[in-house]
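Entry 12.
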Amino acid sequence: MSRISGTQKASPAARRKARRFAVQALYQWQVGGANLTQIEAEFRTDNDMSNVDLEYFSDILHGVPREKGRLDEKFAPFLDRRIDEMTPVELAILRLAAYEMAHRLDVPYKVVINEAVELAKTFGATDGHKYVNGVLDRLAQRERMVEIKGPRG
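Predicted 3D structure (tokens):
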């Protein structure tokens, strides 16, 4: 089985799998504070990473912690609570999505929001996906205004 890399166009399914593993890895980093390189190595060893966009997984896993402060500042105005009161799952998902909004302009904002909502449905609390959707919808208005207002085709 071939692994997806940056040398070929990754399928939406390969990106979805990368996000799914990335949110789990980010959760592990947030809760346990483990070394990112160690977390990545464990995920690559312990999981079936075939048909996963590994470059995307690595970009998110290392990019989110590197940009954590800036990412939190981007979505904090749209929260109804302090960041330290967020559930670790919702926080990992919001950080991942904020990272994609800011640094992965190759991913349409609607895809970023939809994927985050699906992650929240899978890993979050009962209505966590609604909260994630509301926060990211407002974040998109700020981060992706050009894309939102752009020509529709």
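Annotation: DSSP finds seven helices and no strands in the chain. The domain at 12-148 is CATH 1.10.940.10 (N-utilizing Substance Protein B Homolog; Chain A).
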